[in-house]
Design goal:
By secondary structure, the chain is α+β, with helices and mostly antiparallel strands. Helices cover 22% and strands 38% of the residues.
Length: 176
């Protein structure tokens, strides 16, 4: 079993939705992922890159307040799975990158949910990880939930199936 460096944090969130996995596969393929942002030149072969504004809505304390950060969202090849499909996904700030978290993981889609699972690295190494455990992880989870809501809006079967329910952390997953 490999160990995860202490400054990396597991993030696993799921958003229930009714999904046509064939349509989702197409939308995540070469021509269909513009919902992720403006296409830009990728840095890694086999990926597509989008310039996007990631958001962190402050729901509990100030529902009208939303923090936004321009970020590059990288989407890897989409693979079919027995339940649906999966694609590698990651994001990082498009400017001042050392000051913002980096996420790398997978977008997993089935007929009943969209799941985001992976690792994020808070800025600042070990000190950043300590701050993240204390309170900054709220922003990482909030951004992940916001991202899943956008994915549901783009990939759900129809408008009626886009009942945005809170994304939930998966059982047995570390979200700290």
């Amino acid at each position: 079993m490999s160990s995860v460096p202490i400054h990396l944090t597991s993030l696993v969130l799921a958003q229930p939705a009714s999904i046509d996995v064939g349509r989702a596969f197409q939308m995540l393929s070469e021509a269909g992922a513009e919902w992720l942002g403006t296409p830009v030149s990728p840095t890694d072969p086999g990926t597509r890159r989008y310039l996007s504004d990631l958001s962190f809505p402050v729901r509990e304390r100030a529902p009208q307040l939303t923090f936004k950060k321009a970020a590059f969202v990288d989407l890897g090849a989409v693979r079919a799975t027995p339940e649906g499909c999966v694609a590698e996904i990651g994001w990082h700030s498009s400017s001042l990158a050392p000051l913002f978290p980096v996420f790398a993981g997978h977008l997993v889609i089935s007929a009943t949910e969209i799941r985001l699972e992976g690792l994020y690295a808070p800025p600042g190494g070990g000190v950043g990880a300590a701050l993240d455990r204390a309170f900054l992880n709220i922003a990482a989870r909030g951004t992940g939930r916001w991202f899943l809501e956008r994915a549901v809006e783009a990939l759900a079967l129809d408008e009626a199936s886009v009942t945005v329910r809170p994304a939930v952390a998966r059982p047995n997953a570390t979200v700290s």
